[in-house]
Amino acid sequence: MEPKKTENVVAGLVGAFLGSLIGVACIVLLGQLGVVAAVSGLVMVVCALRGYAWFSGTMSRKGAVLVCALAVVMVYVANRVDFAVNIAGWAGVDVFTAFRAIDDLLEAGYLRQNAYWGNLVMLYLFTLLGAVPALQGAFRTGGAERPGDMTADHFVPTTYEEDARRLERMDPTLEEPAPVREAVRPMAAIFLPFAGMFLGFVVLWLSISPILLEGLLNGAQTPEALLQGYSSWYVLLMLAVAAAVALPAVGTALAVRKSGGVPVTLAAVCIVFPLLIGGAMLAIEDVPGLFFQSREDLAQIESGQLQEVTVWLSPKFQEDQLPGPYTEGQPRPVTRYRGIGEDTGRRWVDFYLPDSLGFSLDPDALYRDGESVQWNEENARQYRLYLTRHFRLVVSAEPLDLPAQGLRVTV
Hints:
Distance between the termini: 91 Å
Order of helices and strands: HHHHHHHHHHHEEEEHEE
Mean pLDDT: 79
Structural class: alpha+beta
Largest sheet: 6 strands, antiparallel
Shape: elongated
């Protein structure tokens, strides 16, 4: 009988570190989506444990303790990287500079300590919740062989009776070697659903990243092209959520095919969690509704049946975006003006003028809040706007001659 394999702690720690990097990536990606969840800790600990067992050749209690210590460190690093990515996008610096500056920002008060440390504490609590079942499994099944330890005899396709007769002839004390698939099955059952979920979150993150929307807008030169880009973005957001749910489902199906079964809890977490995150994003921002509204507004532009209003525009304006689930660094292709007049019922209403129109207010005839209506009618220039119904996206803006009479224009 072969001697029991010794544990290679150094190699195991290398494997645990490589496995923990998957957990770090998951935590950072979920953080960019505005989520802190137990599944991040579950991914971290399970991948680290499996990496340790795979590289060291076995798993002992000492190895499990070392993996836990490594997970504590890597969760701290992941939280710091998550904040560094946000700071880098906000301040326009690289991630490494932001990573080093976090302590200074906390001390100076530019970064709220309750947000930073509170997020870390919550992440550790959720990591503990995810670690408990994984550690129980490691202590219960420690010392399993890895596929690399199998000999050529493991690959001989024989029946149970043939194996028994062969072993009896060789040495009655020898045990039957386990087939390779018995060692591969647990790995497939764990990693494939997690891999699908991880890829699903990557797809979600890419769908709300500035790169995607910038590519769709691609310097849109007309209001119609701008709205078409946003309409395509809404479609891709819905497809991204569908992919985020489908990928872990496919991973679970492949794991079932390879291993013959997957823990129900694991499959449920990997499939339901992306569904909840993606579904919440679509519901909160009403992405399906935005898509249908964008199509109706595009039909308005194509038919020329636009709304028409005459208003004064406030000199207080700002760069803005059309509705959608945004992250830092998203393009701002429109300018939001506030307008008031008879057509708005003497109430301030927001209008969105695309940058492609090249519109600017007349600096010599600006509307003044502190002056009377009569003064503004005589001295402030009004503008006739042609816009869409839902997004209030201005397709054309015409300055009116002074003195503006504020005549109502039929919509």
